[in-house]
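Morning run. Coffee first, then this:
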Amino acid sequence: MLDTAFTLLGSAVTWLEVIAFTLALANIACNVFEIHWGWPLTIVASVLYAWLFYASKLYGEAGVNLFFAVTALWGWWQWLHGHRAGADGPLRIARLGARGVTVLALGWALTWLVFALLLRAVTDSDVPWADGFVTAGSVAGTVLLGRKLIENWPTWLVVNAASVALFAYKGLTLTALLYVIFFALALCGWIGWRRRLARASSS
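And here it is:
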């Protein structure tokens, strides 16, 4: 799996990265269109990316992908059986509200600090602050997505932009390209979910 499949822009791309890339792309596309099958795809893609990132010494990213694999079970259950307090019917798209956004920003900042210091203390990572930032944002984005909160999409826009720079620096060219596509899909997801929320509010 770690053998070279092809070379892209001077960087070797492994079969592991190719398979993880394909599954991750399908996963995000499902999320954009609210298709619950994206969650099992998340499990497989995340395990493969955890392996890839560990081999690349991106330990925060490796850890957060294992987190993705575990929380995907929770997210899948939420999308199939979850509901919102005080609301009837299945879980629908909603907003955090001003207070929730403040909690999100503070929580992201605090977990970034914790993850970065942890990566500096216990690993040989050469990018602990960048890795910690992306890791913390990914945790926040996953929880928001699992609860169908629309703020997951702007969160992913920030995470994906930072990830492109991080993976390009680490020579993971195909994965950097994947996160460019993720950025575009997150923008589409944000626009689409806002429209669905507006239609639901007016009906």
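Residues 7-83+94-202 form one domain. Good start to the day.
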